[in-house]
Design a protein that fits this description.
The chain is mainly β. It folds into two domains: 194 residues, no CATH class; 400 residues, Porin, CATH 2.40.160.100. It has an 18-stranded antiparallel beta barrel. A three-stranded parallel sheet has the order 8-7-9, with helices on one face. A hairpin with a 6-residue loop joins strand 1 and strand 2. It is globular and about 100 Å long. The N and C termini lie far apart (82 Å).
């Protein structure tokens, strides 16, 4: 009897070692194969089987539920006194109540992510750079056997997780006459002959009760998904299998959309999926598209500008013939985030600087700004209506009235809201933007407007717009010297007619309103014709005429000079930007050609004249350069010739080089003189 007790004690120790080893490997290795033991006095053998489990977790979203872990240990004991075999099977059943996930506190911001369910079977080792979700050490629970045998400590799953068995050990051979569902028991003694027969009964898959659950298949094997779905349904849950791009809003009020979700990932190294509560985002990661641009440009001028020193804001210590050059750099990094099927966000950070202007190698953030930051609602209901709110670019038509001015180093963005309606072949916009926020009510600077564009099947375009400036800060001066606000409106019409070899464009606009105490009465017109010569180099020739009115009598209380609001500027009235679309008549002719793929060569000439000789000469930036109050200096500003070469690579790299010359005319010589102006530049832009 002592020999039997001794061997029984050894068997228990062996079972304990097997179970402990299986539990330690449950989270990182594939399930262990059964270990074999044999009796020394007989050829018969018995397998010791451990029903191990392996998984991370399926998130619990229902009230607390029961989790059952079953292990069976079979030990063979040989009795040397009579040659009999004693088979003892110890079945341990541990029932635990899993806790629901901890709700996020307001300070937490969002609920912490929970581990996603690991597929069954052997798992690949995680890549070193893959984030690993920290896991608590498994707890050990002890159950006392009814037969008086020593208690066996068994590792069990974490309290906040449900375990699912690997496919290889989905069943446990039943070798005992009876198994208690709640406590370990000793099995009856069986003859050795019966042990050779294979077990035919099998234990069912673990039951995982729960509510309606969305099972999101993140690239997992279909058989894995089917096994998990079966386990959930056996527990009474209603399971919906969703694809990887599951709906962004899991609202229980939506038909067919579950109120809870679990995730099955393709590998153990997959990132954790987030539990979806009613109204929460999809467990899938938010799609983010990154973009950016680096742009460098060097410019050199033989004359800074034509303002006479000591006039119109130019320092009297400067000289008219001063030369200048500069290197400017612009960096933009932005991202588009799809936050819901109909909602996306977009932002761009920008650093725009003149290189070396900080005066020190130590960097600062003084030049960094938020260039774009808005949220788009792509549609309202089922209607072709979209809404954009935030900092954005406004650009309409060809940018001759309202545009983003991208040639400038900093560009131009507007803070406001835009509503867009897009019925068939039409686009209708309405917007309001804050140009400047006044401290007192009524002192804000607001730009608002409506724009409607129609495009035909053949490419013809017709566009109408109405833009209104409401600048209440009283910083404008009338012809009589009184200060006041600016309240004006610019209404215009633009058209484009496309023919097989011709492109005809025209635009006209009027300005009306109040500028301080003066009535605003101004207009502008532009017409452009482009002819395609259809050569091997895709050569085109073009001609343009533009007129923007000036003030005929600067003392009559009527402001007649056209103000191009916030136009795109550069290249419309020459690359040198010495003339803007205000009190100007411009005659232009040019040619563009493509000598090779990706290469564009263009040359154009301009003849500039003042519309009204008594009004001011204004450059592209709106700066007043000179004036002949008596109108005796004539109206010929000068002539300009521009040439440029552009190379666009197959990627996102472009190189632009150009040179321009301005020959000063009669008006320049009669109002203070000045040499002709030469200008050259080289620009590199790299997008990513």
């Amino acid at each position: 009897m002592a020999s039997k007790n001794h061997m029984l004690w050894l068997s228990m120790c062996a079972a304990l070692a097997i179970v402990s080893a299986a539990g330690a490997r449950a989270g990182s290795e594939s399930p262990s194969k059964p270990a074999e033991t044999g009796a020394a006095d007989t050829a018969a053998s018995v397998t010791t089987t451990v029903a191990s489990t392996q998984s991370d977790s399926v998130a619990a979203v229902a009230p607390p539920f029961a989790v059952t872990t079953v292990t069976a240990d079979t030990t063979t004991i040989a009795d040397s006194s009579n040659g009999a075999l004693t088979v003892v099977t110890t079945v341990t059943t541990i029932t635990r109540v899993a806790r629901a996930p901890k709700a996020a506190s307001p300070a937490d911001g969002v609920a912490p992510p929970l581990p996603s369910l690991v597929p069954f079977g052997p798992q690949p080792e995680p890549e070193p750079e893959t984030p690993v979700v920290p896991q608590a050490e498994p707890e050990s629970f002890t159950s006392a056997a009814d037969s008086g045998m020593a208690a066996i400590p068994l590792p069990v799953p974490m309290a906040d997780s449900i375990v699912a068995p690997p496919a290889e050990v989905a069943t446990v051979p039943a070798v005992a006459d009876s198994v208690s569902p709640v406590s370990p028991v000793a099995a009856a003694v069986k003859p050795a002959a019966e042990l050779a027969a294979p077990a035919t009964e099998a234990k069912p898959l673990p039951v995982i009760p729960g509510p309606r659950i969305a099972l999101i298949s993140n690239g997992a094997d279909p058989s894995i998904v089917a096994n998990v779905k079966q386990m959930l349904e056996q527990g009474g849950a209603s399971v919906d299998v969703l694809p990887m791009n599951a709906p962004a809003s899991l609202s229980p009020s939506s038909a067919g959309v579950p109120a809870a979700s679990a995730s099955v990932n393709a590998s153990a190294a997959a990132l954790p999926a987030r539990v979806a509560s009613p109204g929460a985002p999809s467990p899938a990661a938010l799609p983010i598209a990154w973009e950016g641009q680096l742009r460098y440009r060097y410019e050199a001028r033989t004359l800074l500008d034509y303002r006479v020193p000591g006039t119109f804001g130019r320092a009297g210590t400067q000289t008219l013939g001063e030369r200048g050059d500069l290197s400017i750099m612009r960096t933009r990094v932005g991202a588009t985030v799809r936050m819901a099927p109909q909602v996306r966000g977009y932002f761009v950070l920008q650093d725009a600087r003149t290189m070396g202007a900080e005066g020190s190698p130590s960097g600062t953030l003084a030049n960094v700004d938020l260039y774009h930051a808005y949220v788009d609602l792509d549609s309202v209901g089922q209607h072709p209506l979209s809404v954009r709110v935030g900092r954005q670019t406004l650009a309409y038509g060809e940018g001759r009235v309202v545009a983003g001015a991208d040639w400038g180093n900093a560009g131009r963005a507007y803070d406001g809201a835009r509503v867009r309606w897009t019925p068939a072949r039409m686009q209708i916009d309405g917007f309001v933007s804050w140009i400047s926020e006044g401290r007192l009510i009524g002192q804000d600077r607001l730009l608002s407007g409506v724009d409607g564009l129609f495009k035909s099947k053949r490419g013809h375009e017709l566009e109408a717009y109405h833009f209104r400036r409401s600048f209440g800060d009283a910083s404008w001066t009338s012809e009589s010297g009184r200060k006041g606000a600016l309240m004006d409106a610019t209404s215009g019409l633009r058209m484009r007619v496309l023919q097989p070899r011709f492109d005809v464009r025209a635009e006209a606009a009027t300005q009306n309103g109040q500028r301080a105490s003066d009535a605003v009465r101004a207009w502008f017109f532009v017409g452009r014709v482009t002819a395609d010569l259809r050569g091997a180099w895709k050569t085109k020739v073009f001609g343009e005429y533009m007129r923007a009115t000036g003030d005929e009598d600067p003392t009559d209380g009527k402001f007649q000079r056209f103000d191009p609001v916030y136009w795109g500027g550069h290249n419309y009235q020459g690359a040198l930007d010495v003339a803007g679309a205000s009190n100007l008549r411009d005659q232009c002719a040019g040619i563009s050609t493509t000598p090779a793929k990706g290469w564009t060569l263009q040359a154009e000439g301009h003849v500039f004249r003042l519309d009204q000789p008594r009004d001011v000469w204004v450059d592209d930036a709106g700066t007043t350069l000179r004036r002949s109050a008596a109108g005796t200096a004539g109206n010929t500003l000068g002539r300009e010739l521009d040439a440029s070469l552009r190379w666009d690579t197959r990627g996102k790299v472009s190189i632009l080089a150009g040179a321009s010359r301005f020959w000063a005319g009669e008006f320049v010589r009669s109002t203070g003189g000045g040499t002709d102006l030469n200008w050259g530049y080289l620009q590199l832009a790299v997008g990513f």
